[in-house]
Amino acid sequence: MQSQDTGRQSTPDPGPSVTPAEALAAGRTALGIELGSTRIKACLIGEDHAVLASGGSDWENQFVDRMWTYALEDVWSGLQAAVAELLDDAERRHGVRPTTVGSMGISAMMHGYLAFDAEGELLVPFRTWRNTTTETAATELTELFGHNVPLRWSVAHLYQAVLDGEEHVPAVDFLTTLAGYVHWRLTGRRVLGVGDASGMFPVDAATRDYDARMLSAFDERAGGHPTAPSRPLGELLPQVLVAGEDAGSLTEEGAALLDPSGSLQAGIAVCPPEGDAGTGMVATGAVAPRTGNVSAGTSIFAMVVLERPLQAVHPELDIVTTPAGDLVAMVHCNNGASELGAWADMFREFAAALGHPAEPADVYRALLGAALDGEADGGGLLAYNYLSGEPITGLAEGRPMVVRTPGSRPSLANFARTQVYGVFGTLSLGMRVLADEGVSVDEMFAHGGLFRTAGVAQRLLAAAIEAPVAVGHTAAEGGAWGIAVLAAYQRRGGDASLADYLAGDVFAQSEADVVEPDQGDVAGYRAWLEQYSAGLAIQRAAAEAVR
Protein backbone atom coordinates (compact mmCIF):
# COMPACT_ATOMS: atom_id res chain seq x y z
CA MET A 1 0.00 0.00 0.00
CA GLN A 2 1.25 3.44 -0.81
CA SER A 3 0.09 6.97 -0.20
CA GLN A 4 0.25 9.08 -3.31
CA ASP A 5 -0.79 12.49 -4.59
CA THR A 6 -3.59 12.29 -7.10
CA GLY A 7 -1.82 14.94 -9.16
CA ARG A 8 -4.91 16.70 -10.49
CA GLN A 9 -3.69 20.21 -11.33
CA SER A 10 -2.83 22.95 -8.89
CA THR A 11 -5.34 24.51 -6.55
CA PRO A 12 -6.57 27.98 -7.57
CA ASP A 13 -5.87 30.88 -5.24
CA PRO A 14 -8.58 30.55 -2.56
CA GLY A 15 -8.44 34.24 -1.70
CA PRO A 16 -8.36 35.59 1.86
CA SER A 17 -8.64 32.80 4.37
CA VAL A 18 -11.30 32.87 7.04
CA THR A 19 -11.64 30.96 10.27
CA PRO A 20 -14.30 28.23 10.55
CA ALA A 21 -16.27 30.47 12.93
CA GLU A 22 -16.22 33.33 10.41
CA ALA A 23 -17.28 31.00 7.59
CA LEU A 24 -20.16 29.65 9.66
CA ALA A 25 -21.35 33.11 10.69
CA ALA A 26 -21.17 34.45 7.13
CA GLY A 27 -22.74 31.40 5.52
CA ARG A 28 -19.65 30.67 3.44
CA THR A 29 -20.45 26.98 3.65
CA ALA A 30 -22.31 24.18 1.90
CA LEU A 31 -24.61 21.65 3.55
CA GLY A 32 -25.07 18.12 2.26
CA ILE A 33 -27.65 15.64 3.55
CA GLU A 34 -27.86 12.04 2.42
CA LEU A 35 -30.52 9.50 3.33
CA GLY A 36 -28.70 6.18 3.23
CA SER A 37 -30.02 2.71 3.86
CA THR A 38 -29.33 2.67 7.59
CA ARG A 39 -28.20 6.19 8.44
CA ILE A 40 -29.13 9.75 7.54
CA LYS A 41 -26.01 11.94 7.46
CA ALA A 42 -25.58 15.71 7.40
CA CYS A 43 -22.25 17.30 6.50
CA LEU A 44 -21.27 20.98 6.51
CA ILE A 45 -18.17 22.01 4.57
CA GLY A 46 -16.22 25.23 4.19
CA GLU A 47 -14.95 26.88 1.04
CA ASP A 48 -11.92 24.56 1.07
CA HIS A 49 -14.36 21.60 1.13
CA ALA A 50 -13.12 20.49 4.57
CA VAL A 51 -15.75 19.23 7.01
CA LEU A 52 -16.71 21.84 9.61
CA ALA A 53 -19.53 19.93 11.32
CA SER A 54 -21.54 16.76 10.92
CA GLY A 55 -24.59 15.03 12.29
CA GLY A 56 -26.52 11.85 11.79
CA SER A 57 -29.45 9.68 12.70
CA ASP A 58 -29.98 5.94 12.40
CA TRP A 59 -33.01 4.47 10.69
CA GLU A 60 -33.99 1.15 9.18
CA ASN A 61 -36.31 -0.17 6.52
CA GLN A 62 -39.26 -2.41 7.36
CA PHE A 63 -40.60 -5.45 5.54
CA VAL A 64 -44.35 -4.80 5.44
CA ASP A 65 -46.80 -6.85 3.38
CA ARG A 66 -43.79 -8.44 1.63
CA MET A 67 -42.49 -5.01 0.58
CA TRP A 68 -39.36 -3.21 1.80
CA THR A 69 -40.36 0.31 2.82
CA TYR A 70 -39.62 3.34 5.00
CA ALA A 71 -42.33 5.45 6.64
CA LEU A 72 -42.27 9.05 5.41
CA GLU A 73 -42.65 10.20 9.02
CA ASP A 74 -39.25 8.61 9.67
CA VAL A 75 -37.77 10.59 6.78
CA TRP A 76 -38.53 13.86 8.53
CA SER A 77 -37.77 12.83 12.08
CA GLY A 78 -34.44 11.43 10.89
CA LEU A 79 -33.59 14.52 8.85
CA GLN A 80 -34.44 16.79 11.77
CA ALA A 81 -32.32 14.75 14.16
CA ALA A 82 -29.34 14.79 11.78
CA VAL A 83 -29.57 18.54 11.20
CA ALA A 84 -29.98 19.26 14.92
CA GLU A 85 -26.89 17.22 15.70
CA LEU A 86 -24.95 19.06 12.98
CA LEU A 87 -25.95 22.48 14.35
CA ASP A 88 -24.98 21.37 17.86
CA ASP A 89 -21.66 20.06 16.52
CA ALA A 90 -20.89 23.36 14.77
CA GLU A 91 -21.62 25.33 17.94
CA ARG A 92 -19.59 22.96 20.10
CA ARG A 93 -16.57 22.93 17.79
CA HIS A 94 -16.52 26.52 16.57
CA GLY A 95 -18.69 28.56 18.92
CA VAL A 96 -21.19 29.52 16.22
CA ARG A 97 -24.64 28.09 15.62
CA PRO A 98 -25.33 28.56 11.90
CA THR A 99 -28.51 30.36 10.83
CA THR A 100 -27.81 29.98 7.11
CA VAL A 101 -25.49 28.24 4.69
CA GLY A 102 -24.28 29.29 1.28
CA SER A 103 -25.94 26.39 -0.51
CA MET A 104 -27.24 22.93 0.24
CA GLY A 105 -28.27 19.67 -1.41
CA ILE A 106 -30.17 16.45 -0.81
CA SER A 107 -29.06 12.97 -1.80
CA ALA A 108 -30.66 9.60 -1.12
CA MET A 109 -30.93 5.99 -2.16
CA MET A 110 -31.73 5.78 -5.86
CA HIS A 111 -34.63 4.10 -7.65
CA GLY A 112 -37.81 2.87 -5.98
CA TYR A 113 -41.37 4.13 -6.20
CA LEU A 114 -42.85 7.20 -4.53
CA ALA A 115 -46.18 8.02 -6.20
CA PHE A 116 -48.33 11.01 -5.22
CA ASP A 117 -51.78 12.21 -6.27
CA ALA A 118 -52.75 15.74 -7.33
CA GLU A 119 -53.14 16.77 -3.66
CA GLY A 120 -49.63 15.63 -2.85
CA GLU A 121 -50.77 12.57 -0.89
CA LEU A 122 -48.76 9.35 -1.04
CA LEU A 123 -50.82 6.73 -2.89
CA VAL A 124 -49.04 3.56 -1.71
CA PRO A 125 -46.22 3.00 0.81
CA PHE A 126 -42.74 3.85 -0.47
CA ARG A 127 -41.38 0.87 -2.44
CA THR A 128 -37.60 0.95 -2.14
CA TRP A 129 -34.82 -0.24 -4.45
CA ARG A 130 -34.61 -3.41 -2.38
CA ASN A 131 -37.85 -4.88 -3.73
CA THR A 132 -37.53 -7.50 -6.48
CA THR A 133 -41.21 -7.93 -7.38
CA THR A 134 -40.96 -6.24 -10.78
CA GLU A 135 -39.34 -8.96 -12.90
CA THR A 136 -42.18 -9.20 -15.42
CA ALA A 137 -42.28 -5.44 -15.97
CA ALA A 138 -38.50 -5.05 -16.13
CA THR A 139 -38.16 -7.88 -18.66
CA GLU A 140 -40.90 -6.49 -20.91
CA LEU A 141 -39.57 -2.94 -20.78
CA THR A 142 -36.01 -4.08 -21.50
CA GLU A 143 -37.24 -5.80 -24.66
CA LEU A 144 -39.40 -2.80 -25.60
CA PHE A 145 -36.65 -0.20 -25.14
CA GLY A 146 -33.61 -2.23 -26.19
CA HIS A 147 -32.12 -0.86 -22.98
CA ASN A 148 -31.66 -2.70 -19.70
CA VAL A 149 -34.35 -1.78 -17.17
CA PRO A 150 -33.37 -3.21 -13.77
CA LEU A 151 -35.99 -4.46 -11.31
CA ARG A 152 -35.49 -1.55 -8.91
CA TRP A 153 -35.96 1.29 -11.44
CA SER A 154 -38.97 3.52 -10.87
CA VAL A 155 -40.44 2.83 -14.31
CA ALA A 156 -40.33 -0.91 -13.60
CA HIS A 157 -42.30 -0.37 -10.39
CA LEU A 158 -44.84 1.80 -12.20
CA TYR A 159 -45.32 -0.63 -15.07
CA GLN A 160 -45.57 -3.61 -12.71
CA ALA A 161 -48.38 -1.75 -10.93
CA VAL A 162 -50.04 -1.29 -14.33
CA LEU A 163 -49.67 -5.00 -15.15
CA ASP A 164 -51.01 -5.96 -11.71
CA GLY A 165 -54.05 -3.73 -12.17
CA GLU A 166 -53.34 -1.61 -9.09
CA GLU A 167 -56.17 0.89 -8.73
CA HIS A 168 -53.97 3.78 -7.63
CA VAL A 169 -52.10 4.11 -10.95
CA PRO A 170 -54.58 6.40 -12.80
CA ALA A 171 -54.40 8.81 -9.84
CA VAL A 172 -50.61 9.23 -10.04
CA ASP A 173 -49.78 12.91 -10.54
CA PHE A 174 -46.09 12.85 -9.58
CA LEU A 175 -43.57 10.02 -9.47
CA THR A 176 -40.17 10.56 -7.89
CA THR A 177 -37.31 9.15 -5.85
CA LEU A 178 -36.56 9.69 -2.18
CA ALA A 179 -34.15 12.57 -2.90
CA GLY A 180 -36.66 14.10 -5.31
CA TYR A 181 -39.41 13.86 -2.69
CA VAL A 182 -37.38 15.57 0.03
CA HIS A 183 -36.23 18.29 -2.37
CA TRP A 184 -39.84 18.87 -3.48
CA ARG A 185 -41.01 19.33 0.11
CA LEU A 186 -38.10 21.67 0.91
CA THR A 187 -38.28 23.85 -2.20
CA GLY A 188 -41.62 23.24 -3.93
CA ARG A 189 -39.72 22.21 -7.10
CA ARG A 190 -40.40 18.86 -8.83
CA VAL A 191 -36.88 18.35 -10.18
CA LEU A 192 -34.18 15.71 -10.08
CA GLY A 193 -30.47 15.55 -10.85
CA VAL A 194 -29.73 13.67 -14.06
CA GLY A 195 -27.83 10.89 -12.26
CA ASP A 196 -30.81 10.08 -10.04
CA ALA A 197 -33.24 10.57 -12.93
CA SER A 198 -31.33 8.00 -14.99
CA GLY A 199 -32.33 5.41 -12.39
CA MET A 200 -35.99 6.27 -12.84
CA PHE A 201 -36.13 6.12 -16.64
CA PRO A 202 -33.48 5.83 -19.38
CA VAL A 203 -31.72 9.11 -20.19
CA ASP A 204 -30.53 10.19 -23.64
CA ALA A 205 -26.85 11.14 -23.28
CA ALA A 206 -27.16 13.65 -26.13
CA THR A 207 -30.02 15.64 -24.58
CA ARG A 208 -29.32 14.83 -20.92
CA ASP A 209 -33.04 14.27 -20.52
CA TYR A 210 -35.41 11.31 -20.55
CA ASP A 211 -35.20 9.38 -23.82
CA ALA A 212 -38.12 10.70 -25.93
CA ARG A 213 -38.46 7.56 -28.07
CA MET A 214 -38.69 5.34 -25.01
CA LEU A 215 -41.21 7.64 -23.33
CA SER A 216 -43.48 7.33 -26.36
CA ALA A 217 -43.01 3.56 -26.43
CA PHE A 218 -43.95 3.32 -22.76
CA ASP A 219 -47.08 5.43 -23.17
CA GLU A 220 -48.24 3.31 -26.10
CA ARG A 221 -47.61 0.02 -24.28
CA ALA A 222 -49.08 1.08 -20.92
CA GLY A 223 -52.06 2.76 -22.58
CA GLY A 224 -53.49 -0.60 -23.54
CA HIS A 225 -54.13 -1.56 -19.92
CA PRO A 226 -57.22 -0.67 -17.85
CA THR A 227 -55.13 0.89 -15.07
CA ALA A 228 -52.80 2.97 -17.25
CA PRO A 229 -51.54 6.36 -16.03
CA SER A 230 -53.99 9.14 -16.88
CA ARG A 231 -51.29 11.35 -18.45
CA PRO A 232 -48.10 10.75 -20.48
CA LEU A 233 -45.24 9.46 -18.35
CA GLY A 234 -43.07 12.47 -19.17
CA GLU A 235 -45.59 14.70 -17.37
CA LEU A 236 -45.42 12.58 -14.21
CA LEU A 237 -41.63 12.47 -13.85
CA PRO A 238 -39.45 15.19 -12.28
CA GLN A 239 -37.75 17.75 -14.51
CA VAL A 240 -34.16 16.68 -15.21
CA LEU A 241 -31.30 19.02 -14.23
CA VAL A 242 -27.53 18.64 -14.54
CA ALA A 243 -25.05 19.58 -11.84
CA GLY A 244 -24.73 23.33 -11.38
CA GLU A 245 -28.23 24.25 -12.60
CA ASP A 246 -30.73 26.19 -10.53
CA ALA A 247 -32.97 23.84 -8.53
CA GLY A 248 -34.76 26.35 -6.34
CA SER A 249 -34.30 27.54 -2.77
CA LEU A 250 -35.38 26.57 0.72
CA THR A 251 -38.90 27.82 1.42
CA GLU A 252 -40.27 28.88 4.80
CA GLU A 253 -42.17 25.59 4.98
CA GLY A 254 -39.04 23.68 3.99
CA ALA A 255 -36.92 25.41 6.61
CA ALA A 256 -39.45 24.47 9.30
CA LEU A 257 -39.44 20.86 8.11
CA LEU A 258 -35.67 20.66 8.18
CA ASP A 259 -35.09 22.53 11.44
CA PRO A 260 -38.16 23.01 13.67
CA SER A 261 -36.01 24.99 16.13
CA GLY A 262 -35.97 27.85 13.65
CA SER A 263 -32.20 28.25 13.50
CA LEU A 264 -31.94 27.74 9.74
CA GLN A 265 -33.54 30.48 7.69
CA ALA A 266 -35.34 30.20 4.34
CA GLY A 267 -33.81 31.34 1.05
CA ILE A 268 -30.83 28.99 0.89
CA ALA A 269 -30.02 27.90 -2.69
CA VAL A 270 -30.50 24.15 -3.18
CA CYS A 271 -28.65 22.20 -5.86
CA PRO A 272 -30.31 19.45 -7.97
CA PRO A 273 -31.07 16.43 -5.75
CA GLU A 274 -28.96 13.40 -6.57
CA GLY A 275 -28.83 9.68 -5.93
CA ASP A 276 -26.26 7.97 -3.75
CA ALA A 277 -24.47 6.61 -6.82
CA GLY A 278 -23.84 10.09 -8.18
CA THR A 279 -22.71 11.53 -4.85
CA GLY A 280 -20.41 8.54 -4.42
CA MET A 281 -18.78 9.42 -7.73
CA VAL A 282 -18.32 13.01 -6.61
CA ALA A 283 -17.01 11.95 -3.19
CA THR A 284 -14.27 9.95 -4.89
CA GLY A 285 -13.62 12.37 -7.74
CA ALA A 286 -14.50 9.65 -10.26
CA VAL A 287 -16.57 11.45 -12.91
CA ALA A 288 -14.18 11.32 -15.91
CA PRO A 289 -13.91 8.45 -18.44
CA ARG A 290 -11.83 5.42 -17.33
CA THR A 291 -12.44 6.26 -13.67
CA GLY A 292 -14.78 4.44 -11.35
CA ASN A 293 -15.77 3.94 -7.77
CA VAL A 294 -17.16 1.29 -5.46
CA SER A 295 -19.60 2.20 -2.70
CA ALA A 296 -20.14 -0.37 0.05
CA GLY A 297 -23.03 -0.15 2.47
CA THR A 298 -26.32 -2.02 2.80
CA SER A 299 -26.00 -2.48 -0.95
CA ILE A 300 -22.77 -2.42 -2.93
CA PHE A 301 -22.29 -0.99 -6.37
CA ALA A 302 -19.56 -0.05 -8.80
CA MET A 303 -19.72 2.88 -11.22
CA VAL A 304 -17.45 3.08 -14.27
CA VAL A 305 -17.55 6.16 -16.51
CA LEU A 306 -17.69 5.00 -20.12
CA GLU A 307 -15.66 6.21 -23.07
CA ARG A 308 -18.32 4.87 -25.46
CA PRO A 309 -21.74 3.21 -25.28
CA LEU A 310 -21.75 -0.54 -24.62
CA GLN A 311 -22.15 -2.82 -27.63
CA ALA A 312 -24.94 -4.93 -26.16
CA VAL A 313 -27.64 -4.92 -23.51
CA HIS A 314 -26.56 -6.74 -20.36
CA PRO A 315 -28.97 -7.54 -17.50
CA GLU A 316 -26.07 -7.29 -15.06
CA LEU A 317 -25.34 -3.66 -15.99
CA ASP A 318 -27.36 -0.49 -15.53
CA ILE A 319 -26.63 2.41 -17.86
CA VAL A 320 -26.96 5.59 -15.81
CA THR A 321 -25.11 8.91 -15.80
CA THR A 322 -22.82 11.07 -13.73
CA PRO A 323 -24.37 14.19 -12.15
CA ALA A 324 -23.12 15.99 -15.26
CA GLY A 325 -24.93 13.59 -17.59
CA ASP A 326 -22.07 11.41 -18.90
CA LEU A 327 -22.75 7.71 -19.45
CA VAL A 328 -21.87 5.30 -16.65
CA ALA A 329 -22.05 1.53 -16.39
CA MET A 330 -23.34 0.57 -12.97
CA VAL A 331 -23.03 -2.85 -11.34
CA HIS A 332 -25.57 -2.72 -8.54
CA CYS A 333 -25.91 -5.50 -5.98
CA ASN A 334 -28.80 -5.43 -3.54
CA ASN A 335 -26.73 -7.06 -0.79
CA GLY A 336 -23.63 -5.43 0.62
CA ALA A 337 -22.09 -5.34 4.08
CA SER A 338 -25.20 -5.88 6.25
CA GLU A 339 -24.53 -9.58 6.84
CA LEU A 340 -20.92 -8.86 7.82
CA GLY A 341 -22.33 -6.33 10.28
CA ALA A 342 -24.69 -8.94 11.74
CA TRP A 343 -21.79 -11.30 12.39
CA ALA A 344 -19.77 -8.47 13.95
CA ASP A 345 -22.67 -7.78 16.32
CA MET A 346 -22.79 -11.44 17.31
CA PHE A 347 -19.06 -11.54 18.03
CA ARG A 348 -19.45 -8.38 20.14
CA GLU A 349 -22.15 -10.15 22.16
CA PHE A 350 -19.86 -13.15 22.55
CA ALA A 351 -17.02 -10.97 23.82
CA ALA A 352 -19.38 -9.34 26.34
CA ALA A 353 -20.55 -12.79 27.50
CA LEU A 354 -16.89 -13.64 28.23
CA GLY A 355 -16.59 -10.48 30.31
CA HIS A 356 -14.71 -8.46 27.69
CA PRO A 357 -17.16 -5.93 26.22
CA ALA A 358 -15.88 -4.22 23.08
CA GLU A 359 -16.89 -1.27 20.97
CA PRO A 360 -18.32 -2.06 17.52
CA ALA A 361 -15.36 -0.38 15.80
CA ASP A 362 -12.93 -2.58 17.74
CA VAL A 363 -14.82 -5.72 16.72
CA TYR A 364 -14.69 -4.67 13.07
CA ARG A 365 -10.98 -3.99 13.29
CA ALA A 366 -10.38 -7.42 14.83
CA LEU A 367 -12.49 -9.22 12.24
CA LEU A 368 -11.05 -7.38 9.27
CA GLY A 369 -7.53 -7.74 10.63
CA ALA A 370 -8.04 -11.48 10.93
CA ALA A 371 -9.17 -11.61 7.30
CA LEU A 372 -5.65 -10.70 6.18
CA ASP A 373 -4.37 -13.86 7.87
CA GLY A 374 -6.90 -16.10 6.09
CA GLU A 375 -5.99 -18.43 3.26
CA ALA A 376 -6.24 -16.83 -0.17
CA ASP A 377 -9.11 -19.13 -1.20
CA GLY A 378 -10.88 -18.82 2.16
CA GLY A 379 -9.92 -22.32 3.23
CA GLY A 380 -12.90 -23.88 1.49
CA LEU A 381 -15.54 -21.71 3.23
CA LEU A 382 -18.31 -19.92 1.35
CA ALA A 383 -20.34 -16.95 2.60
CA TYR A 384 -23.52 -15.61 1.03
CA ASN A 385 -24.73 -12.18 2.15
CA TYR A 386 -28.15 -12.44 0.49
CA LEU A 387 -30.60 -10.81 2.90
CA SER A 388 -32.82 -9.95 -0.07
CA GLY A 389 -33.12 -11.05 -3.67
CA GLU A 390 -30.22 -10.46 -6.04
CA PRO A 391 -31.11 -9.71 -9.69
CA ILE A 392 -27.55 -10.12 -11.00
CA THR A 393 -27.58 -13.78 -9.98
CA GLY A 394 -31.27 -14.29 -10.77
CA LEU A 395 -32.47 -14.78 -7.20
CA ALA A 396 -35.85 -13.38 -6.20
CA GLU A 397 -35.19 -13.95 -2.49
CA GLY A 398 -32.09 -14.44 -0.38
CA ARG A 399 -31.04 -16.58 2.56
CA PRO A 400 -27.79 -15.54 4.29
CA MET A 401 -25.61 -18.55 4.94
CA VAL A 402 -22.14 -19.93 5.54
CA VAL A 403 -21.31 -23.17 3.75
CA ARG A 404 -18.34 -25.48 4.04
CA THR A 405 -17.36 -29.02 3.21
CA PRO A 406 -16.04 -31.56 5.74
CA GLY A 407 -12.59 -30.96 4.31
CA SER A 408 -12.62 -27.19 4.62
CA ARG A 409 -10.50 -25.38 7.20
CA PRO A 410 -12.69 -23.30 9.53
CA SER A 411 -10.84 -20.64 11.48
CA LEU A 412 -11.53 -17.05 12.48
CA ALA A 413 -9.17 -15.85 9.74
CA ASN A 414 -10.80 -17.92 7.00
CA PHE A 415 -14.29 -17.05 8.25
CA ALA A 416 -13.51 -13.32 8.25
CA ARG A 417 -11.91 -13.45 4.81
CA THR A 418 -14.85 -15.27 3.24
CA GLN A 419 -17.31 -12.84 4.82
CA VAL A 420 -15.47 -9.97 3.12
CA TYR A 421 -15.27 -11.99 -0.10
CA GLY A 422 -19.03 -12.48 0.21
CA VAL A 423 -19.56 -8.71 0.17
CA PHE A 424 -17.71 -8.52 -3.17
CA GLY A 425 -18.83 -11.80 -4.78
CA THR A 426 -21.81 -10.64 -6.83
CA LEU A 427 -20.09 -7.35 -7.67
CA SER A 428 -17.12 -9.11 -9.25
CA LEU A 429 -19.46 -11.23 -11.40
CA GLY A 430 -20.91 -8.02 -12.83
CA MET A 431 -17.48 -6.47 -13.31
CA ARG A 432 -16.47 -9.46 -15.43
CA VAL A 433 -19.27 -8.57 -17.87
CA LEU A 434 -17.80 -5.08 -18.20
CA ALA A 435 -14.34 -6.52 -18.84
CA ASP A 436 -15.76 -8.75 -21.57
CA GLU A 437 -17.14 -5.56 -23.20
CA GLY A 438 -13.59 -4.22 -23.35
CA VAL A 439 -14.20 -1.54 -20.72
CA SER A 440 -11.00 -0.55 -18.94
CA VAL A 441 -10.55 1.39 -15.74
CA ASP A 442 -7.30 2.95 -14.61
CA GLU A 443 -8.22 3.00 -10.93
CA MET A 444 -11.23 2.34 -8.74
CA PHE A 445 -11.93 4.60 -5.79
CA ALA A 446 -13.65 2.99 -2.82
CA HIS A 447 -15.72 4.59 -0.10
CA GLY A 448 -18.04 3.62 2.73
CA GLY A 449 -17.58 2.51 6.32
CA LEU A 450 -16.19 -0.89 5.27
CA PHE A 451 -13.00 0.87 4.15
CA ARG A 452 -12.32 2.66 7.42
CA THR A 453 -10.03 -0.16 8.56
CA ALA A 454 -7.00 0.64 6.48
CA GLY A 455 -5.82 -1.80 3.84
CA VAL A 456 -8.11 -4.79 4.49
CA ALA A 457 -11.35 -4.56 2.50
CA GLN A 458 -9.40 -2.40 0.05
CA ARG A 459 -6.82 -5.14 -0.58
CA LEU A 460 -9.45 -7.86 -0.99
CA LEU A 461 -11.53 -5.66 -3.31
CA ALA A 462 -8.46 -5.14 -5.50
CA ALA A 463 -8.19 -8.92 -5.80
CA ALA A 464 -11.91 -9.29 -6.52
CA ILE A 465 -12.01 -6.76 -9.39
CA GLU A 466 -8.36 -7.21 -10.44
CA ALA A 467 -7.70 -3.48 -10.53
CA PRO A 468 -5.94 -0.93 -8.29
CA VAL A 469 -8.19 0.40 -5.53
CA ALA A 470 -7.72 3.83 -3.97
CA VAL A 471 -9.19 5.04 -0.70
CA GLY A 472 -9.04 8.75 0.08
CA HIS A 473 -9.37 10.60 3.34
CA THR A 474 -13.07 11.27 2.64
CA ALA A 475 -13.88 7.55 2.22
CA ALA A 476 -15.96 7.40 5.39
CA GLU A 477 -17.71 10.74 4.70
CA GLY A 478 -19.32 9.31 1.57
CA GLY A 479 -22.38 10.77 -0.10
CA ALA A 480 -23.23 13.49 2.43
CA TRP A 481 -19.88 15.09 1.68
CA GLY A 482 -20.40 14.44 -2.04
CA ILE A 483 -23.73 16.27 -2.20
CA ALA A 484 -22.22 19.12 -0.15
CA VAL A 485 -19.53 19.39 -2.84
CA LEU A 486 -22.24 19.48 -5.53
CA ALA A 487 -23.95 22.28 -3.59
CA ALA A 488 -20.64 24.16 -3.46
CA TYR A 489 -20.23 23.60 -7.22
CA GLN A 490 -23.61 25.17 -7.89
CA ARG A 491 -22.70 28.15 -5.74
CA ARG A 492 -19.50 28.49 -7.78
CA GLY A 493 -21.70 29.28 -10.78
CA GLY A 494 -20.77 26.49 -13.19
CA ASP A 495 -17.78 28.33 -14.71
CA ALA A 496 -15.96 24.99 -15.06
CA SER A 497 -17.04 21.46 -15.89
CA LEU A 498 -17.78 19.23 -12.94
CA ALA A 499 -14.75 17.07 -13.75
CA ASP A 500 -12.46 20.13 -13.87
CA TYR A 501 -13.96 21.52 -10.67
CA LEU A 502 -13.31 18.28 -8.80
CA ALA A 503 -9.81 17.92 -10.21
CA GLY A 504 -8.76 21.53 -9.79
CA ASP A 505 -10.59 22.69 -6.68
CA VAL A 506 -11.55 19.69 -4.59
CA PHE A 507 -8.98 16.93 -5.04
CA ALA A 508 -5.90 18.83 -6.30
CA GLN A 509 -3.96 18.35 -3.07
CA SER A 510 -5.61 15.17 -1.89
CA GLU A 511 -3.77 11.97 -1.17
CA ALA A 512 -5.06 8.45 -1.53
CA ASP A 513 -3.88 5.08 -0.33
CA VAL A 514 -3.62 2.89 -3.42
CA VAL A 515 -3.47 -0.91 -3.30
CA GLU A 516 -2.44 -2.94 -6.33
CA PRO A 517 -3.92 -6.45 -6.69
CA ASP A 518 -1.79 -9.07 -4.97
CA GLN A 519 -1.40 -12.00 -7.37
CA GLY A 520 -1.72 -14.56 -4.59
CA ASP A 521 -4.98 -12.96 -3.49
CA VAL A 522 -6.18 -12.82 -7.11
CA ALA A 523 -5.56 -16.53 -7.67
CA GLY A 524 -7.20 -17.43 -4.36
CA TYR A 525 -10.22 -15.22 -5.03
CA ARG A 526 -10.70 -16.72 -8.49
CA ALA A 527 -10.80 -20.19 -6.97
CA TRP A 528 -13.19 -19.02 -4.28
CA LEU A 529 -15.47 -17.30 -6.81
CA GLU A 530 -15.73 -20.48 -8.89
CA GLN A 531 -17.08 -22.35 -5.87
CA TYR A 532 -19.26 -19.36 -4.94
CA SER A 533 -20.87 -19.36 -8.39
CA ALA A 534 -21.50 -23.11 -8.27
CA GLY A 535 -23.00 -22.76 -4.80
CA LEU A 536 -25.68 -20.30 -5.93
CA ALA A 537 -27.86 -23.36 -6.46
CA ILE A 538 -27.85 -23.72 -2.66
CA GLN A 539 -29.34 -20.23 -2.39
CA ARG A 540 -32.16 -21.13 -4.75
CA ALA A 541 -32.95 -24.31 -2.84
CA ALA A 542 -32.83 -22.50 0.51
CA ALA A 543 -35.22 -19.78 -0.66
CA GLU A 544 -37.73 -22.47 -1.66
CA ALA A 545 -37.28 -24.63 1.44
CA VAL A 546 -36.85 -22.07 4.23
CA ARG A 547 -39.73 -19.63 4.61
Description:
This protein has 547 residues and is α/β, with parallel strands linked by helices. The chain has a domain at 338-425 and 518-545. It contains 18 helices and 24 strands. The strands form 7 sheets. It has an 8-stranded mixed beta sheet with strand order 1-24-23-22-16-17-19-18, sandwiched between helices. Strands 2, 3, 4, 7, 14 and 15 form a 6-stranded mixed beta sheet that branches. A hairpin with a 3-residue loop joins strand 2 and strand 3. The longest helix is centred in the last third of the chain and has 25 residues, at 412-436. It is globular, with a radius of gyration of 23 Å. The chain starts with a strand and ends with a helix. This is Xylulokinase. Residues 293-490 form the Carbohydrate kinase FGGY C-terminal domain. GO terms for molecular function: D-xylulokinase activity. InterPro entries: ATPase_NBD, FGGY_C, FGGY_Carb_Kinase, FGGY_N. It is an enzyme of class 2 (transferase).
